[in-house]
Amino acid sequence: MKGYKVISALAGLALFLSLLLTSIDLLCFNRSFFHWQYSLNHTAESIGISEDGLMNATNALLDYMQDKRDDIKVIEVVNGSEREIFDERETLHMVDVKNLYLNAMKIRTILLVGSIAILTLLVFTHRNQSYTILSNAYRNGLLFLGSIIFFIAIYAIVDFNGFWMNFHYVFFDNDLFLLDPNISIMINMFPSNFFFAVVFGIILLFVSMVILLKLLLVLFKHKIERRLV
Q1: What is the DSSP string of 162-187?
Q2: Residues contacting 23, CB < 8 A, separation 6+
Q3: Distance of alpha carbon 101 from alpha carbon 65, whole angstroms
Q4: What is the spatial distance between Cα 172 and Cα 76, in angstroms, rounded to a whole number?
Q5: For every one of its 229 residues, what pLDDT tens digit does the chain have, with 9 covering 90 and above?
Q6: How distant, in Å, are the alpha carbons of 11, 18, 123, 212, 220 from that of 114?
Q7: Residue 162, exposed/middle/buried by CB under 10 A (0-12, 13-18, 19+)?
Q8: What are the C-alpha distances in Å from 36 to residues 21, 40, 92, 118, 210?
Q9: Residues 14, 115 contacting (CB under 8 angstroms)
Q10: How far apart are the C-alpha atoms of 1 and 153, rounded to whole Å?
Q11: What is the spatial distance between Cα 90 and Cα 54, in angstroms, rounded to a whole number?
């Protein structure tokens, strides 16, 4: 059984990683979240653009990242003058962001399908230990990933700017993400407090999924106990 504990723990880690990536996907493409943050930050007013124009630019970015359009060319009225919203540097940076996102979603799918397949196989081949296998996957997978998320969250709370800069240095091999707020509309659309909300929104979504999985595990345990009565 010891070997299966290791396998189930690794499958649990893969499952939780896939849920974390799913949380990122769900939050970062939630238009209501963008509306809410823009309203809180008075983004449209600070940029000098209409709310509809701001959401049009946002939709272009999100659709581009999901490979639903070929570019992020958007023309809107800013401070009374018609102009293209995103410049060349921002456009090149979004190429990197899109590639990162699409690769992350491929990894998410592999982890999700792989972890479910492994856990399903273990449960069917070791029916008498099915709850033990699943609880071991849950406990150890969450313990490992949860510990990492906890320390990342503490780092982000203490020094969010440092955390955000290091995140970019890890995942990007250039400095295109360094945008001038006096020139770039993109950086004014998404200031640091916006990304602070994104990071902790992702964590809250992930925690909700963890709790839901726990409830399902408890229901599964009760189902097994009723069979034994």
Answers
A1: HHHHHHHHHH-SSSTT---TTT-HHH
A2: 202, 203, 205, 206, 209
A3: 7
A4: 29
A5: 566 788 999 999 999 999 999 999 999 999 999 999 999 999 999 999 999 999 999 999 999 999 999 999 999 999 999 999 999 999 999 999 999 999 999 999 999 999 999 999 998 888 888 888 999 999 999 999 989 988 988 998 899 989 999 999 999 999 999 999 999 999 999 998 999 999 999 999 999 999 999 999 989 888 877 776 5
A6: 8, 10, 14, 20, 21
A7: exposed
A8: 22, 6, 27, 40, 25
A9: yes
A10: 35
A11: 16
Residue whose entry in the numeric block shows the structure tokens 């408890």: 218
Please name the residue that has the structure tokens 């990007």.
172
